[in-house]
Amino acid sequence: MMPRPSRRNVLGGAAALACTALAPESLVASLLPPAPILDAHIHLFDPDRPGGVPWPPPTDTALYRPALPPRYSALARPEGVVAAIAVECSPLPADNDWLLHTAASSDLIVGIIGDLDPAKDTFAAELDRLAANPLFRGIRYGNLWDRDLDQHLADPLFLSNLRRLARRDLVLESANPTPQLVAALLRLAARLPDLRIILDHLPQAVPPEDPALRTHYLALLKQLSERPNVVLKGSEILRRVDGSVPLTLATYTPWLDTLWQLFGEDRLFFGSDWPNSDHLTPVHTVFTLAQAYLATRGPTAARKFFWTNAAAIYNWRPRTDEQRLARG
After folding, report:
1. In the predicted model, what is the mean pLDDT of residues 192-203?
2. Three-state DSSP class for 201?
3. What are the distances in angstroms from CA 294 to CA 262, 266, 299?
4. Burial class for 146, CB neighbours closer than 10 Å (0-12, 13-18, 19+)
5. Left (φ > 0), alpha (ψ -120 to 50) or beta: where does 145 sit?
6. What is the model's pLDDT at position 35?
7. Exposed, middle or buried by CB within 10 Å (0-12, 13-18, 19+), for 50?
8. What CA–CA distance (Å, rounded) separates 50 from 247?
């Protein structure tokens, strides 16, 4: 059964979208036909398990409670989500197995992105073991957990391990796209053109205000967008501005338009960043804002953004008839 159209509402009209505060329960006019959503960026963790979790910290009152498939499903299915990718948020090797086990318990989760360090000599054996599970779709490596991508770009072991990742048809996801990380990813994309690289969270990474730094950052993104092995995940669209979170599409449209012009409709796709999104707004608003923007791009672009592109980049296997029907 496909999702009910009544929960896939966007604001009614491109002009209204550009200037009206989002009010998803009262401003209802569907510009997009009901379509399935693949949410390509969620996090799963359980602070109540023995030993706790490395993230989030107990001081994070917005997040520090179990974030498990039943809780996510209750929020996401009414929005039209029929598949999701869980991204590891722990550097502990054993947590790859925990995430795979947790994902296997819910047929809504069609893939996981694990955490393995290509700079370590244990990488190859661990990758071979984890990749035997079809839910394992790649790794995340960026400037997180005291790691620095740039310092490893001349390391033969590091590059050899990433080539192994590419040969297995698995992806490399980055993290928060600072200018330093974007520059390093550009060099990596050139060195390993067969490695599919996913750039996470760029919608929230507003360019530096300094004119020279801004020009340099945008030039790096332009060069990165010209690498055919790089795609952009449209996660973390909303952001805090002067202490509050704007709920007007007009706030986000200029930067989203820039990213759209850079990467095009065939290399962008959706991720909610749940439950990290709870720092800013209930996840329903994340879906509503993304749908509102895609309504200005039309149904074909929306289908690619919410479903087709992510299905291709991760090459995941459907687990339900609904997913098989949607994937075609």
Report:
1. 94
2. coil
3. 16, 13, 8
4. exposed
5. left
6. 80
7. exposed
8. 39
* Three-class SS state of 106: coil
Is the pLDDT assigned to residue 154 strictly greater than 70? Answer: yes
Q: How far apart are CA 202 and CA 233, in angstroms?
A: 7
Q: Find the length of the chain.
A: 328
More confident residue, 208 or 120: 120
Which residue type occupies 112? I
Buried b (16+ CB within 10 A) or exposed e, 20-41: bebebeebeeebbeebbbbbbb
Domains defined along the chain, listed by start: 5-327 (3.20.20.140)
Structure-token match 């359980």, residue found: 46
**pLDDT band at residue 21 using 50, 70 and 90 as cut-offs:** low
Tokens describing residue 43: 């996090």
Contact 252, 237 (CB under 8 A): yes
Q: Where are the alpha helices (DSSP H) in the chain?
A: 14-19, 69-76, 94-104, 123-131, 156-167, 179-191, 211-225, 249-263, 283-295, 299-303, 309-314, 321-327
Cα 240 to the chain's mean position, in Å?
A: 19
What sign does the dihedral 280-298-300-257 (CA atoms) show?
negative
Q: What is the pLDDT of residue 145?
A: 83
Cis peptide before 134 (omega within 30 of 0): no
29 pLDDT above the threshold of 80: no
Structure tokens at 276: 């990290």
Rounded Cα–Cα distance for residues 241 and 251 (Å): 10
**pLDDT, tens digit (0-9, with 9 covering 90-100), for 203-250:** 888 788 899 999 999 999 999 999 999 999 999 899 999 999 999 999
Query: Distance (Å, rounded) from C-alpha 176 to C-alpha 17?
Result: 28
